[in-house]
Design a protein that fits this description.
Largest sheet: 5 strands, antiparallel
Number of strands: 12
Distance between the termini: 52 Å
Number of helices: 1
Number of domains: 2
CATH architecture of the largest domain: Sandwich
Strand order of the largest sheet: 5-12-11-8-9
Helix content: under 10%
CATH class of the largest domain: Mainly Beta
Strand content: over 45%
CATH superfamily of the largest domain: Purple acid phosphatase-like, N-terminal
Radius of gyration: 23 Å
CATH topology of the largest domain: Immunoglobulin-like
Order of helices and strands: HEEEEEEEEEEEE
Structural class: mainly beta
């Protein structure tokens, strides 16, 4: 009996898997429709890819654009970015180009390294991100060398 319990313990520790992580907070929510467990502040995850797509276990994928900063001087300037996440191109849309002068953008990686930059001369600008690695990037829009708006871009395969 003692050997069977020891074997069971070794078997579970070698072949048993469970999700485990250090998170800031989390919990469980339930109702008549079902239940869900959630966590906030997860710092790592596992990603698997094949020809059909990519699965990131333990991570919710955002489908919204989150402006990081808006200067009050440029709050009336309508600047939009889509689609996000993306795999090929992003489109930068400026509401009324005639209200501003010297518009430009800078695309940087998470470490702040400049990837590309250009002047914005049209209401809609297409930015090619096909050659970039799968990661998060930052797009900063400037008006006369003053930051007007910043976006986080999620680059997929």
């Amino acid at each position: 009996m003692k050997h069977q319990i020891m074997f069971l313990g070794v078997f579970i520790s070698l072949f048993g898997t469970a999700q485990q992580n250090t998170v800031a907070t989390g919990g469980n929510a339930s109702s008549a429709g079902g239940s869900v467990s959630y966590s906030i502040g997860q710092i790592d995850y596992e990603s698997s890819s094949n020809a059909n797509g990519t699965v990131s276990q333990g991570v919710q994928q955002p489908f919204e654009i989150y402006p990081l900063a808006v200067d009050e001087l440029f709050s009336s300037l309508e600047i939009n970015l889509f689609p996000n996440p993306t795999s090929d191109y992003i489109h930068l849309s400026i509401g009324d180009l005639s209200k501003t002068e010297n518009l430009s953008y800078q695309l940087t990686d998470a470490s702040g390294r400049l990837i590309q930059s250009a002047l914005i001369t049209e209401n809609s600008t297409q930015i090619d991100v096909q050659g970039l690695s799968t990661a998060s990037y930052f797009l900063n829009v400037f008006v006369a060398d003053k930051p007007a708006k910043s976006f986080t871009i999620i680059k997929n395969h």
